[in-house]
Amino acid sequence: MSLLPETLSLHKTTRKHYLSLTLGAESQVTYVWINEDKENLLSKTRTLQQEPAGIRDIPEWDTASNALNEQILVPVRMFRDPFTLDPNKLVLCEVLTDKYVPTGNSQRSPCVKVREEVKEFEPWFGMEQEYMLCGSDGKPYGQPAQGWKFRGVSCAVGSDNVYGRDISICHYRACLYAGVKIGGTNSETLGSQWEFQVGPCEGTELGDHLWMARYILHRVCEDFDAVASLDVKPADESSATSGCHINFSTKEMRSEGGLQYIEGAISRLSKHHSQHLSVYDPHGGADNKRRLTGQKTTSEFNKFSSAVGRRDVSVRIPGHVFRKGCGYFEDRRPAANCDPFSVIKALLETCLLGATE
Ligand code: ADP
Ligand code: MN
Ligand code: MN
Ligand code: MN
Ligand code: MN
After folding, report:
1. For the GS catalytic domain, which residue ranges apply (predicted)?
2. With 60 as the cut, is the pLDDT of residue 259 above it?
3. DSSP-derived secondary structure for 211-274
């Protein structure tokens, strides 16, 4: 059952009072980690006796997951807590077994390892996270009961075209406060559908920032009695889909004459299409099979394609990059619910590993 809006706002007013109670030297630290399903996030909070100055001040902890054996939460990146404010923290953790082996809930560890091997390329990444806002009843957020609005264009404005802008605005500000490298936002084609961009970030850092941006989104949605769905096809009635395009460059691609290196990387990607699709969603490609139908601005699941300034392809060279002769390219295939580390790792391996041989 959804709460009435009046009840919700009374709760928020009441919460303000409790959050104004002053703390001593303590800091509330919320540990955030990726679930075994490689898709959902979990979190729990503990008190540290003083504000941690950095990641090394935050101790390991055990998960309270349903795994038979206890697992270890190893803090990897610290952010400010935009919900309970300074001196409180959000900390992204990697999940290790009791023998200190990564569980594979995300591909962070293997990704960091590959990144070390290709350090000299100075890779940068940026991702565009699309998501659909739903009410707690599962219906599109804020839309009239008589049916879905499907604008068919992104970046729409007006209260008869977009729903949930407050959530996008609050999420954006919360990410900036937290220290998440959010780059921008826009409304998407399905009325209650939105996008935010993270990056550009150096190397694997993007994965930490994107996962934390997703966590903050889910928490902001709690405040609006809404749910953010990262399903690749959030509305069966329409062909609209949610993806998580990744933008990629190396030092050479960003420098004068970089276009030839972009073309070289795309040529390598064309030879590993199915291998990439198998790690571009958490279900071995099953999600993208529903999404990449060649309709609207998607490409075909079974066929690699690339072009300058077109969006119905696997990989796009933005028009401005082509005109300038250097910059970055966009791989449009990753699904909205992908593990960014799996995607980054695949790109580094295909485009850069062995490229110096
Ligand atoms: P689109 O036109 O595909 O909707 P967006 O403006 O939504 O593009 O996103 C562009 C993305 O490209 C952002 O995530 C940004 O961080 C990223 N980006 C910009 N420059 C670079 C670069 N040199 N290397 C990698 N990523 C980049
Ligand atoms: Mn308990
Ligand atoms: Mn975009
Ligand atoms: Mn988009
Ligand atoms: Mn894009």
Report:
1. 107-357
2. yes
3. HHHHHHHHHHHHHTTEEEE--SS--TTS----BEEEEEE-HHHHSTTTHHHHHHHHHHHHTTHH
